[in-house]
Amino acid sequence: MTIKAGITFFYYRDLAAAHAFYRDVMGLRLVRDQGWAKILALSPSAYVGLVDETRGSLRAAADKPVMLTFVVEDDQVDVWHARLAAAGVAGLIAPKLHEGIGVYGFLATDPEGYRLEVQSFREPLA
Asked: pTM above 0.85?
């Protein structure tokens, strides 16, 4: 099971200011604009995701406001879910398709309570 890329998501009260900082000051390239989330490239396989903190179900825990996402091939999402389920990983949520943003994936929680996501993009990143 190969991980293609990683995305670390941070949650912001002012998404526009965060996006401007990473785009204009840090010089990162926007690869996906989902409106309430912006994904910018750090390298060919590492990304930072900037999210409007008011987004309900995808929001990270209040005391652990970071989410680490593992981007995998589309046919590997269910394989990863089965692996984590067999290991008894906490907070495991069934995979689902988020049609509005073209993402298929699921959420889980690591031993310290950080939110993890395993997903595939139905459309490739730019």
From this structure: no
